[in-house]
Amino acid sequence: MKKFTLSLKLFLIPAFCLILCAFSDSDSIDEYVGYLQKSFTDHYDFSQESNQIKRYELNVTNNGFCRYKRYFNNGKTEYFAFKLAKFKDMDYYGTTESGKLYLHTKGDDVIVQTYKDKGGDVDSMATQVIIPLKNMEAEDLNKIRENLNKINPQTP
After folding, report:
1. pLDDT tens, position by position, 61-70
2. Nearest to 88 by CA among 73, 63, 109, 64
3. pTM for this prediction
4. Residue 74 lies inside a defined structural domain of this protein
């Protein structure tokens, strides 16, 4: 009986440790989302659009969505949203002082809604969201890409 108990302990302890390691996550999605929200908020460049835009909302949510809403001076509203798991790649065009971040999705995964436009309210799909940013160093962009890739389980 003692041999059986010893064998059982030798089997169960490593199995229990393996189970704990499998379900532990050193970094959580909340940390990645928090970093993205802080980066987008800190580096958003309102001056690139201030002559057209009255205000904006840019949110990265804990349930994995990026939402960007722009309110124009003429009353028009544009809304962009995509699930972060659909992130494919990103490009940055500009300088370290000012530029635009293009977040590309795997397909037509960006929801685009326009309200109070001259042509009427429009719902469509797109493949990218463009966010004006300022004071972006290469390290900042690499960290944004890294966090987006960690949220996206299909990206290596």
Report:
1. 988 899 999 9
2. 109
3. 0.78
4. yes
